[in-house]
Amino acid sequence: MALITKSIKGTLDVLPAESHKRQFVEHTCLEIAENFGFREIRTPVFEHTELFQRGVGDTTDVVQKEMYTFNDKGDRSITLRPEGTAGVVRSYLEHGLYNEPMPQKMCYLTSCYRYEKPQAGRLREFHQFGIECLGAASPAADAEVIGVAQNIFDFLGVQNIQLEINSIGCPTCRKEYHKALKAYFDSHTGELCATCNDRLSRNPMRILDCKSPVCSEIAKDAPKVTEFLCDDCKTHFASVQKYLKAMGIDFKVNPTIVRGLDYYSKTVFEFVSTDIGSQGTVCGGGRYDGLVEEVGGPKTAALGFGMGIERLMLLMENQGLAFPSPAQCELYIASMGENALEKAAAIAHALRKEGMHTEFDVVGRSVKAQMKYANKIGAKFTVVLGDSELESGIVKLKNMNSGEETELRLDTFESDVLNITISESLKEFEDMDFSALLGDFNQ
Ligand code: ATP
Ligand code: MG
After folding, report:
1. Is 11 contained in some domain?
2. Sorting pLDDT into bands at 50, 70 and 90, what band is 436?
3. Mean pLDDT, the chain, as a whole number?
4. Which of 123, 305, 311 has the most ligand 1 atoms within 8 A of CB, as the residue to mutate?
5. Which ligand 1 atom lies nearest to the CA of residue 116?
């Protein structure tokens, strides 16, 4: 085979055999966020470039090096979204959502695009589940947002994931901190990488996020932001910790977390695991009280997080966590001859309308090959239709698990087969062991 081209480097195909896992994780995220009052928002995959330059910040790696930016045919500069927050904030302002009851709690599943070096856990097209809470200044909101991510990990059964939190203060305390950082790194200019030398004058905090071993070694002894917090930021950070403790959420304060996007203020956090190699941050987020104003709106306290779906799935796979099985074929109708095929098509269509997963032969295989196929796709029941069945009006429904056969009349086949499969599913449900799930409630 000579393919004219392959997929773009750093992109992934989710194949049919795997997609139920992805759907399960995505549904879990949306449903858990819904319990906290977050409703889904969908924004376009591309935006005007200025939105990210201003919103994400033009001293960040994302804007300086990683964006997919191009001019469209009308010569406008367009960028594929590198993250979800800026677009949500733009939409919130454009549609006047600030007139709705506050806070506005929104969540999304989106693709993101960053020109990075592809490796395990680092793609050029990746997906995020994100939540944004706009109009909430209380530290209780910080704990609530963190609680969404924690509940997702708990529900999925993810182990060995550590919540690390920090406060990077507000613009007032950050001014003092920047001065101290600059003074510290000024004494190391000869050793820092070229990018960090540039960062030194523009945004010294970015140096703390540098992945080069030399810079990170120097950064270890840099002044810590927590020592420069103003009283308001200190109280806020203490309260966040108090609420997290009250909610039973474990955390570690890590004063080196600064996050890679410019819009953060006060609380920042990451959920990190050592089970997926060096790209260990599965979820990152924090408060961005200045962003809405930066995008042109009124001053609005806000916060959120982005969770990398591919990293989360990698972690789940590495930990051998269980995924529900994909939907299975309930009934396969094998047919022999043109008349039987016509009848099979009619029955299948009627049962599918009733919501039943039904399949029949659309390939023109022999009955033997059709039964082999039914086995392969794990059909729970099968029936064979041929001229003699059409004549007698009697068919045999076979339970593929037990081998048991039941004679059914063709003229009442649809309703009979529906009853049988429903009672079979109920039996399976009754036989399930829910004790593990109910354990917490029975204590
Ligand atoms: P990193 O430090 O790993 O580059 P980041 O700080 O750039 O992460 P964020 O912008 O906070 O990441 O994005 C939130 C989450 O999205 C990350 O925690 C990660 O799970 C995921 N993510 C970010 N970039 C990528 C990527 N290139 N490929 C896959 N997932 C990613
Ligand atoms: Mg990054």
Report:
1. no
2. low
3. 94
4. 311
5. 27
164 plus 295 within the same structural domain? yes
Domain contains 429: no
CATH of the domain at 409: 3.40.50.800
Overall pTM surpassing 0.90 (yes/no)? yes
In a domain? residue 126: yes
pLDDT band at 307 (very low <50, low <70, confident <90, very high): very high
Strands across the sheet containing 69-71: 46-48, 77-80, 69-71
Specify whether the CB–CB gap between 206 and 174 falls below 8 A: no
Q: Same domain for 116 and 246? A: yes
Give the residue with greater pLDDT, 369 vs 200: 369
Per-residue pLDDT tens digits for 387-405: 999 999 999 999 999 999 9
Atom of ligand 1 nearest to the CA of 61: 7
Domain enclosing residue 282, as ranges = 16-170+230-318
The band of 210, judged by pLDDT with boundaries at 50, 70 and 90, is: confident
295 and 371 part of one domain: no
Residues 305 and 348 in one domain: no
Ligand 1, residue 121: give the atom nearest the CA: 29
Phi and psi dihedrals of 273, rounded to 5?
-130, 145
Report whether residue 222 contacts ligand 1, using a CB cutoff of 6 Å: no
Cβ of 138 closer than 6 Å to ligand 1, yes or no, is no
Place of tokens 């979800």: 84
Q: Is the CB of 116 under 6 A from ligand 1?
A: yes
- Give the ligand 1 atom nearest the CA of 283: 18
